[in-house]
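pasting for ref. prot 1 ->
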Amino acid sequence: MKGEIAMNVTNVSTTHYQQNGDHIVGMVLDPYEMEQNDPFLFLAHDDFVEGTFGPHPHRGIETVTYGVSGTVEHFDTANGPGTIHEGDVQWMTAGHGVLHSEEPAKGTRAQVLQLWVNLPADEKMRESNYQTLLARDMPVVSIGASTIRLFAGALGADEAPTETIQPVHFFEIRVPAGETVTIPTPSDWKTFAAVLEGSGTFGTNERPATARQAVHFDGKGTSVTITATDDLLVLLYAGKPLGQPIAARGPFVMTTDEELQRAFQDYRNGYFHTLEKKED
């Protein structure tokens, strides 16, 4: 777009997968690089069956789950149920605590991309929330022959209805072969793209990437440029860094070790099992 300064690509990473029984997982963003990816904690590509993600707790984060294939049924005791299919998103704000499950429809497999977003220190103990973001309900913006579906954030005059705590943009981008699209993106935010289908080049330095790779931008600009070699499906994520300490272990992400220990103590004492659905 006119007046935009396109970002360079700093690196392209390839997702490697491991299998544990019926669960196949690849880390698109590695949890060992939380500080570099602030405010994002990790992004996992999960291929799983029923029973993989039964009831478990969270505190201090948001999980953003994109349906790659199949059906995923979510339930937590504080916010009730929700179901997503391919191309839909679940946006779960754990806040002070949830006990939830994420399961494929009975007798099936599902694939998802799940992003963990850190919450600011003063928001970690907020009320929990759950949003089902169906693809058909999200705004779609056309730029040339490309389409951009907005799951979080704004593009031009269009804005996703999603309630976000930490400023985040999450766009699903489809670029036909041979086409180029430029997407405005806030400067100095952590910005990366996960390539789901096809191949293309990214950034002003035209780094090539293909499916099951992640493209990391330098944040030194106001847009990202994508050119499709083949029909391209990309998820673009951008988030404003928090710049706060991270104390993370298992399902809990807090700011200090003392807060982390309290989360585990609350779980052992049954706090997460007493959370009930909020009154409307």
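and prot 2 ->
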Amino acid sequence: MKKGLGLFVLAAVVFTVAWGQPVYAETEENPVIETGVCAGEVDLGGLTKEEAKEKLDAYYQQLAESAFTVTADGRPVETTLAQLGFSWDSESVAEEAVRQGKGGSILSRYIERKDLENGEVNLTVPYTLDTKAVAAFVGVQVAALDTPPQDATITREDGAFVVTSEINGLQTNKVETVKAVEDAVAQQLGENMTVEAIAEVTKPACTSEVLNQIQDLLGDCTTDVSGTDARYTNVKVASGNINGKVLMPGESASASTMMKKRTAANGYKKAPQYVDGRSE
């Protein structure tokens, strides 16, 4: 029995020496984290659990408060990750950091310590955004930069048709933009991030290609004007407001509205008017 016990003790000693690490039981009430343990860019070596949590919170709070910009067609809309509901779990990471190199079997502790020596223990801090907060930001602030399409226009000037080209619009794809924001934060979290909104081109209903086909004048009208200078001025002002108006198919217009209110501010003068065929 003594001989067998001696061999067992010798084997235990050889095993301990072979693995290069002493066997001990953790008795510290507030143990520190082993050198070489990191969480992302944050070095946690030599810290207690509470110190590690504070350091992680300070780091991620700084990220949360930094500018976060979404650009739409080159125009920026700025917010912060905090306003997008950014949150993280430092508690569980600090607990895991303390356990590195201290728990489990002799073999698992040996492997963990070797990883520590090689600087290969880098813990991941779980974090997330509030999808509802991101959707609200995109739907209100980013979408406010949307531009509606502008139809081409046609007027008649100096006896000729003049066409002004159409302008395409841009409309934010809200679902895809929310996804782009969440993907960017998940894949490349950092300070002062910028993400491009996903936008779609919206086409106008009327294009210059269509309007350029209009070449024919379908009708015109002239009349003689008699009476006072004031009446002549009023007819000239009124007809000038109507002249050159182009009506598209299905469109209507009021001559009275186009002539504007008959006031001095609009160029009209006091003059006799016809009531029941008589001048007053």
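Residues 2-19 form the longest helix (18 residues).
Confidence is low (pLDDT under 50) at residues 1-27.
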